[in-house]
Design brief:
4 helices; 138 residues; two-stranded antiparallel ribbon; 4-stranded parallel beta sheet
């Protein structure tokens, strides 16, 4: 079973209330080969919601509101689901503070990228689950 970011499967759950549909990911979900998850929704964050970036060890909005607890909660719930279904691979939304893999926004809300992983991606890797993004399939 594959876990995919829900927004890639066409579910309007991104911070801006939109999706980022990828036809191949949607097809996997329709065939029952992938489970769409949004750790931010699982962490009880609303849609739409303010944009969040990782600032050190915290997950903050541009005005400094701390959303760390929600991000950690959602990532832990999503990893629990991944383990429950025997997930071995995940296709996640690039650059996201939850799902980013390899590159994430630097916490300055200026569009700059730095090397790093979102919290859900990090936890999946700790479980030895292969992770990639929609920009490079695994």
């Amino acid at each position: 079973m594959i876990i995919v970011s829900a927004c890639l499967a066409g579910i309007e759950c991104r911070y801006n209330g939109q999706s980022f549909p990828i036809p191949e990911v949607i097809d996997l979900a329709k065939k029952g080969q992938a489970i769409p998850l949004c750790p931010e929704i699982l962490g009880k964050l609303p849609t739409p919601r303010p944009c969040v970036e990782i600032c050190g060890e915290r997950f903050l909005t541009a005005d400094g509101t701390d959303k760390t607890e929600a991000f950690i909660l959602g990532a832990k719930i999503a990893v629990g689901i991944a383990n429950l279904v025997g997930c071995e691979k995940a296709i996640l939304k690039a650059k996201s503070p939850s799902c980013g893999c390899g590159l994430i926004y630097d916490g300055t809300f200026t569009g700059n990228l730095v090397q790093g992983d979102g919290i859900f991606c990090r936890l999946l890797k700790e479980e030895r689950i292969q992770v990639c993004t929609e920009t490079e399939y695994c």
